[in-house]
Amino acid sequence: MDHFIVGGLMAFACLAAGAARAAGPPIEDYGKLPAVEQMSLSPSGEKLAWLAVTGDGRQLVIAKAGGEVLFTIRTGALRPRRVAWLGDGHVLIEASKTLAIDPNVSHSTQRVEATQSTIVDAATGAMKTVFFNDRLIHHSTFGYFGYGRTGGQEYGYFGGVTLGGGGTGLTDFEEGTGAFDHNHSDLYRVNLATGVSEKVGGGSERKETTWVMGPDGAVVGRGQYDIKGGEWILWSGQKLGGLIARERDPTGEISVVGLGRTPATVLVERPGDDGDWARIEYGPGGAKAQPFGDTPMREELRDSTTNLLIGGITNEDDPRTILFDPAQQAIFDKIRRAFPGERVALISSSAGLQRMVLHTDGPGDSGTYFLVDVPTKKISAIGWDYPTVLPPQVAPTRMVTYKAADGLTVRGILTLPPGREAKGLAAVVLPHGGPQGHDTLHFDWWAQALASRGYAVFQPNFRGSDGEGKAFRDAGFGQWGRKMQTDISDGVADLARQGVVDPQRVCIVGASYGGYAALAGVTLQQGLYRCAVAVSGVSDLNAMLAWEADRGGESTSTMRYWRRFMGTTSDGDGSLKALSPARLAAKADAPVLLIHGRDDTTVAISQSRNMRAALAGAGKAVELIELAGEDHYLSTQATRVQMLAAVTAFVEKNNPAK
């Protein structure tokens, strides 16, 4: 037998066939968190770890690969962010919580999202929370930098804030408070068996530091960023003597991402020599190589034992998995052919890729995890992202291309309601956040939910988005509320010209920057949209810059980045008022729904509260929903469902699909 056999789908396919004529699932089913996330295979390939939903909460699951569940651990009030294997015997789970900062030790009164890291014994389920037994180390972690073995012991490497002799500044995750008396972290190694922490590298108050660890526990490289000076530096090893590279980087765009293909190399993501983004491998003496050539990459793939770079997943409409080993590439390509028409990504693998976890989505697939056993050529479905969204209910998507008013070529995603002709449809425009982000053809729960209610959903990748090259991203600088905004409405006009959507029946909905675009669509622009929904959106650009400066200071890469995007050099620039929806509330020409999480540490909730006050003061139709315990990223199931239900009801009221 020379081909791979896909099993485990028959019952699901039969259930889907029986439901082919049934109505779509309740809107709440789209709003739920994925039933399975971050599925990760142990280096031996014998065990799996993943995040699962339990009621309204989350839990870590550790199981035999393709077999019984060994144990589960609930995450409680914490928001899980990452699951990773530390060798074959331990699992790392990183989770966060919103904390208030003690005003006695910080100039800022803002809240922060602090990370707690817990090491779980994969055999017994015993847990050790990193730094919780150390009075002289802040109980949050500030980065995970790798796993290593040295002296017969296994260690995890974490960034930690070293405290003064009095042990002040502890984080209380139960009470939701924390304190900081300085702003840099040091490198600590944590014994996985005992939980004992040891400082092995120092940070800098002026320079943000990132460490790259080798599999033997040695520091291979250190990236540093001069916050005020805007300079990036790469050193080899722990000492300051091995300078590899030094460059100007005012907006903090260069980042160290890990080991390269060999233990002596470091991989860096940065603007490439041709103007596009690139992953550069730095070696001894400053030697440089591009492991992926000019191919745009979405993420790296690493050996589960050594953490060396073994390949990556491309950032293309139909992403490809690239493996440097020709034999492994040939095996993966053969597996890939077992999923015609699907988008297939290698998520995790055992050492030597004898076992793999794949994730697929595409026509009729709302997201499926598969376990691949290479020696037996067996592929088994082991988890579904949205198990109640059956194949006939997955809305079709396609890429659309159009010209902006100034001739720039712009692309976007169009999701159509299942079973409906693409003609004269009511529409929802769903611009992404960032604004340096982009939407892809992957299953999008928000777009799919709205399409299931009969809407054509348009997600424009306007100028300033990433994923289309650095020049396209840079074209957005200075165009916040200007051409970035008209790129969106130009796309709607093009769909109307084709007859796909009815231009008189369009609403605009978005989160974060997408929320700003929604508000700007009914204030900076008029006559385009029947309603607007902003989730955690920005409404006042001057206030946003002032808030960011209060949080981190005036001379940071963050401030330089936002000023460059907005096209200003001053937080008090009066021209920004003409681009701020809250200052233009009297011009609003459609009903507005505002939704904001009270634990949002990315966009201040005052942005929505002030927008509501401005609209109400101008006599405009407005509603504000505040989500208790929710952050910027809709990380909690109950409030994510609440948000989606409110958005859908609001859109259906103001812009019926039928």
Number of strands: 37
Query: Which strand order does the major sheet show?
Result: 30-31-33-32-34-35-36-37
CATH homolog superfamily of the largest domain = Alpha/Beta hydrolase fold, catalytic domain
Shape: globular
Query: Total helix count?
Result: 11
Rg calculated over all Cα atoms: 25 Å
Q: How many structural domains in the coordinates? A: 4
- Alpha-beta classification: alpha+beta
What does this structure look like?
The chain has 658 residues and is of the alpha+beta class. The protein folds into four domains: 1-31 and 326-382; 49-196, no CATH class; 204-324; 397-540 and 580-654, Rossmann fold. It is 17% helix and 36% strand. The protein is built from eleven helices and 37 strands. The strands form eight sheets. It has an eight-stranded mixed beta sheet, with helices on both faces. β4 (57-64) and β5 form a beta hairpin. α8 runs antiparallel to α9. The longest helix is centred in the C-terminal third of the chain and has 18 residues, at 637-654. The protein starts with a strand and ends with a helix. Residues 8-22 have low confidence and may be disordered.
Helix and strand topology:
Elements: E1 5-7, H1 10-18, H2 27-31, E2 36-41, E3 47-54, E4 57-64, E5 69-74, E6 79-86, E7 90-101, E8 111-121, E9 127-129, E10 144-150, E11 153-160, E12 177-178, E13 186-191, E14 197-201, E15 207-213, E16 219-226, E17 231-236, E18 242-248, E19 255-259, E20 266-271, E21 277-282, E22 288-289, E23 297-302, E24 309-314, E25 321-323, H3 326-336, E26 343-349, E27 355-362, E28 365-373, E29 378-384, E30 397-403, E31 409-415, E32 425-429, H4 445-452, E33 456-461, H5 470-474, H6 483-497, E34 501-511, H7 513-521, E35 532-535, H8 541-552, H9 557-566, E36 592-597, H10 606-617, E37 622-627, H11 637-654
Helix pairs in contact: 8-9
